[in-house]
């Protein structure tokens, strides 16, 4: 799939380029090809790439999509990302909330694959935790949910994890949720069918010939 075909498929949703595979120079190239939202999964990489590009006058919207270590919270806050997609516990929400001096748009990460190795909140606790964060963490502006699809070749399993996340998202819409971030390079077309409105694509953009 070339970039044009990917952009066509993603035309009705927000496309976040997961740029962990590339340096600032390549990010700039893709910006001029029409991408404007980029997501990093390490705070240090985010701050470094942002720093390199800061004098270029690019209207890049930076997302943070990775696991947030507590010793990186201040550095993340300094970056003022447009969206923190990976809030994965009430404890972490409180830790970030406490140090914020502005309102940070945030997604709750759902472990809809029920995988030990994946971070995120268990689906059956998601609604309650979402509302609790909303109530207790006034500097976090919860905008919806994010999930990483089941790591499997079994399409049914992946679909199930997306459906689980979408159901939570549907229930949260009455509380103002409007972002359902799911779908990566291998499963984004399925994610779109399941109701995703934000894709995070990495290898398909940056690693194809
Ligand atoms: C790397 C990454 C992606 C993109 O993964 P690809 O399979 O390369 O498209 C999406 N979300 C997160 C959280 C990532 O770390």
TrEMBL record:
The name under which this protein is listed is Pyridoxal phosphate homeostasis protein
Query: Which intervals hold domain Alanine racemase N-terminal?
Result: 2-207
Q: Give the family, as the similarity comment puts it.
A: Belongs to the pyridoxal phosphate-binding protein YggS/PROSC family.
One family name in Pfam for this protein: Ala_racemase_N
Q: What does this protein do?
A: Pyridoxal 5'-phosphate (PLP)-binding protein, which is involved in PLP homeostasis.
> Where is coiled-coil annotated?
none
Task: Provide this UniProt record's keywords sorted from A to Z.
Answer: Pyridoxal phosphate
Q: Which InterPro entries match?
A: Ala_racemase_N (IPR001608), PLP-binding_barrel (IPR029066), PyrdxlP_homeostasis (IPR011078)
Record's HAMAP family? PLP_homeostasis (MF_02087)
Q: Determine if ATP-binding is one of this entry's keywords.
A: no
Q: Which domain of life is it from?
A: Bacteria
